[in-house]
Every structure is written in structure tokens, then in C-alpha cells.
Amino acid sequence: MALNFIHQHLDSPGSYARILFVDFSSAFNTIVPSLLHEKLSQLNVPDSTCRWITDFLTDRQQYVRLGKLVSDTRTTSTGSPQGCVLSPLLFSLYTNSCTAGHQSVKLLKFADDTTLIGLIADGDESAYRSEIARLVSWCSANNLELNALKTVEMTVDFRKAPAPLPPVILCDSPVTSVESFRFLGTIISQDLKWEQNISSITKKVQQRMYFLRQLKKFHLPVKMLVNFYTAIIESTLTSSITVWFAAATARDKVKLQRVIHSAEKVIGCHLPSLQELHISRTRRQAARIVAHPSHPGHELFRPLPSGKRLRSIRTRTSRHKNSFFPTAVSLLNSTPTPPPPHQRTIAATYRPSQPTCAPTLLNCI
């Protein structure tokens, strides 16, 4: 969604985007149970659940153990325990009321990862800076502390002669400007290209190929090798593949495909290509968005009057055309229409015998 907002906005001439990657100081440790109780009540959470959560977060005893030494016990009634599966959800509910008030500014939150995107047109940054001030004020009122030293900003600007932009001041400190940032595990560059992210992925999977070769030396069955490849190597190869694959260069795609070919030689069976993985995951993700009207990207999948195809998303640049949503709409439109129910029944009852061949990924699994 972040990239879609940026791509759509940059299709307009004379526009640019400023992205503020906000960092909180000990975010989960600053939750105030009484404030959380009020916010949960406003979200119509049952009172019994609110009281249970409040009781869980208050009067918690903790101590520190170092070898045989144990510190005195302290009682705390602030924050949520680190490592608790409930903590990200509680923090999301705690910050639910923090929203952007201007349509040209997008506030995206994923647990304690908060991103403020200013879609600037005609050089007017008043709304963007106003929303930053509102965010600082909201955090101060809700016991959240912004870490100005770790908060960074990235500017995406494709204008021919852009003027130097004034820095953003956060908590009386200028925010550092960066050329790239690892956002939710994916490296985003200010030129919206993916060489740096793909290089990082390639380095990781090449390191993990060593373990696959070691397992092969121990004569593990093909099925176990495939399971290891799927869980350890393919999962890394396909990290955010729906976002970057269509916009990646042919050279980078070949570089990643070589890893798959190497794995095929080690395992001794066919593995899905990078193109196949991208298509399957993009269609699956698009189908999930279409099935959930509450998803913020649901409105981008608009059916034509015939109901058989989706309305294509208009794009002016190749970088927008190769982003997730236009690519997903194109793939869904290219999906063949399923046969009528009676034909599917016939196809299901008639299963010709398969010839004996080399083991494939499906056969291995």
C-alpha cells in the first residue's frame, strides 16, 4: 500500500514524496493500561475482556537473573511483556486512534513500525509537516516516546531539477535523510529500484545453499531436501516477491534463478521457477484482497460491467505499471475462466494414468 500511494502520486508531473520512518523508544514498554482500557472500550471490546487485559498488564513482578545472582523483585504497571504474543496486537489497538487527517498524507502502521508518507504537489509541504506535528503531540499525550535519532526520512523525487528540501525537525532534532531503508524486511531505495534488495536476498540464499549441500552429503531423502529448500531457501527467495519481481531487471532475475538451478542439481528434482512463484503468490495475494472488502486495496480491483474481468489500473510510468496492483489486476484478467460445473465434474472423475518420469517437486512433497 505504501508503494501504491507513492507510485500513483508520482504519476502526476511536478510531484514528489517524503517518507518518514518513525521509531519509538521501547514501544511496547510504554503502554499505559488505563489508557488502553479506555481505547478498548471505545472499540466496543467487551468490558470483561478489557478488565482481564488491564489486570494482566498491572502489578507485574519481575527480576533479573545473572548466573546465580538474582536482583530484587520490582513491580511494574506500565507496558506489555516483551515476547508476549499479545503485545503487538495490544500496541496496534493502543495506537488505533492515531490517524492522518489530511488526504495527501498517509499514516501506515504495522505493530510498532509507523510510517508517514507525504504526497507533495507543487512544493506545498504544509500538510505533511502539520501531520508530523500532530503525530508528536499524539505520542506525547499517550505516553509514547519518539526516538528522533533512529527516525529517518527518505525522499522520492524524479523531477528534473529539484531544489534542496528543508529538513524535518522532530523533537528539536533534524531527521537524518537516507537513500534507502529496510522497511518490514524489504529494502526500499529512493529511486524505487530493487537492485539493493535483490542483492541482499541473493547473499542470504547463497549462504543457505551451503547447508543444503551438506544435507545432500548425508544422503537425506529427496522429500526432506525439498522440505528444507522450501522452508529455508525458497521462503527467502520469495520474500516480498509480489512487490519487487515485476520491476526487477532481467539481470537480477537471472541471478536469483541460478540459485534455483543450483538447488535442482543438488536435490535432483524440478523446482518451481521464480516466474512461477511470482505468479502464484501474486494471484493468491490478489484473491485475498478481493475477498476482503475491508482491505484498503480492495477498491483497486474493480470489475467491469460484464463481471468477467477487472478494470485495468491506469498508469503513466513503467515503475507504476510494474508495481503490485497493476500487475495483480493483469494476472487475474489473464487467468482462464473456469469451466462450467458439469465439465469440472467430468474432469474430476477422469484421471489418466501418469507416465513414470523423474521426480518433480509435487511428487517429492
TrEMBL record:
> Could you list the residue ranges forming a coiled coil in this record?
none
Task: Pinpoint the Reverse transcriptase domain residues.
Answer: 1-188
Q: Which PROSITE patterns match?
A: RT_POL
Q: Which Gene Ontology molecular function entries are recorded, alphabetically? A: 2-oxoglutarate-dependent dioxygenase activity; methyltransferase activity
Top-level taxonomic group: Eukaryota
User: Which InterPro entries does the entry link to?
Assistant: AlkB_hom8_N, DNA/RNA_pol_sf, RT_dom
Checking PANTHER family in the record gives: REVERSE TRANSCRIPTASE DOMAIN-CONTAINING PROTEIN
User: What is this protein called in UniProt?
Assistant: Reverse transcriptase domain-containing protein
- The species this protein was found in: Oryzias sinensis (Chinese medaka)
